């Protein structure tokens, strides 16, 4: 079962996903920017703490020591959120004060600028600043290292990120709701169109109204209207075809009924013979017409249901002509075939092409002069060209276009056809993208029907 997709959901998702991606990217960028400025602010405070210890470094009798009272130390380490550690160490004298576990941020001992680094103390991440006491009168270099946990930094980062992220999420939610409602309102004309089509009668093939249709949807409605127009024309053509077929079949069937009634009134078998012959004639006409109607139905173009294959047209024409020789002789015609003596390959349907040639030969025998020749000619160059010519009356130029219409016959023409032969030829030729034309013979009399195929199969 094919899963249906919602146009509304597809539009909303395609609009919301970029917005969410923008929020994610903006949040990541905000995180790093906030981290930079939070570190910068608290690093200044941490450096101030380290510099406050510089004034506690004293020199007496050439010795360096740290003068830190307990109250000053308590004030230095007091913090409601973080733990502060420090270490004051001399290059020769060693530890002057503080915690021995405080890490040193640099290995080189002659750096005069403060250095910041990240480290871990007692399993907690800390920020460390290391600096050298800037006093040139010191008998030896003294370094101060101050470390602080990161709780205040993390809290400030969370506050800033939430202050930035929450409004964006609320704005995105509002945009999403607006988009969902906006898409719903925007698709309302489509729902109205669908309801209008659903309420239609199957016989209503009138064009769809485009009063409230958006420009982007008009392409769809125009296509549907074109389809409805084509379908309407096809139905009209089918109804006309059925009406004409019924009308044409009525004549032989009425003859059958009349002659059957006539035969029933006769008691002598010999007297029944004329009626029986008329019954046979009417039955032959009805059978011939049904055969042509079936051939016409087979020649109707059905999308995706017709496969054209490579066919040797020379072999097919030869076979059909051989089948028609006995019938031509019976009607006192001489049927000939100008053989190109080489295969003529085209893409086609063998059954329909045989039907095309059958109708051309049948027409030539029906309307040609007895005792004359019916000539079937096939040319291979410059393209495949099939023609059938017979001796007889020419077709007036004003009738040559209409002669291919279904059930059309020239007034006063001989023969007992029903006007379907050349219509079938035209349908099959169109299916093979071939051109059909009428002309007179070189002698000025008779008719030549030519079917020219556009391209040969290579």
Topology:
Blueprint: H1 7-54, E1 57-60, E2 63-66, H2 70-77, E3 84-90, E4 94-98, E5 115-121, E6 124-132, E7 142-149, H3 151-186, H4 188-198, H5 215-265, H6 269-298, E8 309-312, H7 313-330, E9 334-338, E10 345-348, H8 350-367, E11 373-379, E12 385-390, H9 421-431, E13 434-439, E14 447-453
Parallel strand pairs: 9-11
Antiparallel strand pairs: 1-2, 3-4, 3-7, 5-6, 6-7, 8-10, 11-12, 12-14, 13-14
Helix pairs in contact: 1-3, 5-6, 7-8, 8-9
**Contiguous uncertain segments of 5+ residues:** none
Counting helices, strands and paired strands, the structural category is: alpha+beta
Radius of gyration: 51 Å
Number of helices: 9
Strand order of the largest sheet: 4-3-7-6-5
How many domains? The number is 3
Percent in strands: 15-25%
The end-to-end distance, rounded to whole angstroms, is 42 Å
Please characterize this protein's 3D structure.
The chain folds into three domains: 7-158, Beta-Lactamase (2-Layer Sandwich), CATH 3.30.450; 215-298, Orthogonal Bundle (Helix Hairpins), CATH 1.10.287.130; 309-453, Histidine kinase-like ATPase, C-terminal domain (Heat Shock Protein 90, 2-Layer Sandwich). It has helices at 7-54, 70-77, 151-186, 188-198, 215-265, 269-298, 313-330, 350-367, 421-431, and strands spanning 57-60, 63-66, 84-90, 94-98, 115-121, 124-132, 142-149, 309-312, 334-338, 345-348, 373-379, 385-390, 434-439, 447-453. The strands form four sheets. The chain has a five-stranded antiparallel beta sheet, covered by helices on one side. Strands 9-11-12-14-13 form a five-stranded mixed beta sheet, covered by helices on one side. It is α+β, with helices and mostly antiparallel strands and 458 residues long. The longest helix has 51 residues, at 215-265. β3 and β4 (94-98) form a beta hairpin.
């Amino acid at each position: 079962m094919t899963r249906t997709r919602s146009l509304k959901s597809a539009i909303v998702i395609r609009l919301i996903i970029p917005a969410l991606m923008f929020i994610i990217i903006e949040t990541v960028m905000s995180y790093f920017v906030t981290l930079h400025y939070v570190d910068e602010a608290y690093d200044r405070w941490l450096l101030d703490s380290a510099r406050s210890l510089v004034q506690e470094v004293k020199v007496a009798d050439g010795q360096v020591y740290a003068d830190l009272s307990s109250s000053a130390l308590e004030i230095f380490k007091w913090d409601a959120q973080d733990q502060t550690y420090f270490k004051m160490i001399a290059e020769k004298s060693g530890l002057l004060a503080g915690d021995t576990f405080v890490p040193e941020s640099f290995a080189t001992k002659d750096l005069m600028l403060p250095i910041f680094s990240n480290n871990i103390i007692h399993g907690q991440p800390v920020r460390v600043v290391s600096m050298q006491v800037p006093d040139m009168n010191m008998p030896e270099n003294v370094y101060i290292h101050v470390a602080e946990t990161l709780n205040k930094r993390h809290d400030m980062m969370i506050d800033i990120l939430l202050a930035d992220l929450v409004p964006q999420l609320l704005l995105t939610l509002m945009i999403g709701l607006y988009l969902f409602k906006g898409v719903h309102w925007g698709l309302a004309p489509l729902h109205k169109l669908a309801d209008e089509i659903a309420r239609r009668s199957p016989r209503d093939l009138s064009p769809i109204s485009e009063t409230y249709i958006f420009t982007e949807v008009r392409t769809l409605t125009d296509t549907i209207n074109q389809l409805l127009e084509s379908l309407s024309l096809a139905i009209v053509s089918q109804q006309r075809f059925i009406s004409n077929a019924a009308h044409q079949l009525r004549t032989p069937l009425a003859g059958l009924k009349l002659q059957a009634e006539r035969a029933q009134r006769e008691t002598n078998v010999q007297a029944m013979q004329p009626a029986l012959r008329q019954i046979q004639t009417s039955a032959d006409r009805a059978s011939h017409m049904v055969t042509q109607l079936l051939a016409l139905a087979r020649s109707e173009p059905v999308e995706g249901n017709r496969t054209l294959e490579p066919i040797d047209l020379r072999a097919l024409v030869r076979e059909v002509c051989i089948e028609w020789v006995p019938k031509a002789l019976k009607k006192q015609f001489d049927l000939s075939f100008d053989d190109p003596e080489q295969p003529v390959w085209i893409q086609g349907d063998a059954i329909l092409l045989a039907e095309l040639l059958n109708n051309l030969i049948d027409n030539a025998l029906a309307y040609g002069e007895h005792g004359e020749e019916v000539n079937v000619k096939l040319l291979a160059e410059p393209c495949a060209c099939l023609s059938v010519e017979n001796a007889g009356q020419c077709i007036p130029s004003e009738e040559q276009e209409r002669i291919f219409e279904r059930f059309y016959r020239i007034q006063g023409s001989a023969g007992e056809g029903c006007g379907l032969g050349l219509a079938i030829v035209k349908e099959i030729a169109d299916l093979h993208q071939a051109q059909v034309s009428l002309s007179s013979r070189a002698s000025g009399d008779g008719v030549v029907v030519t079917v020219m195929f556009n391209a040969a199969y290579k």
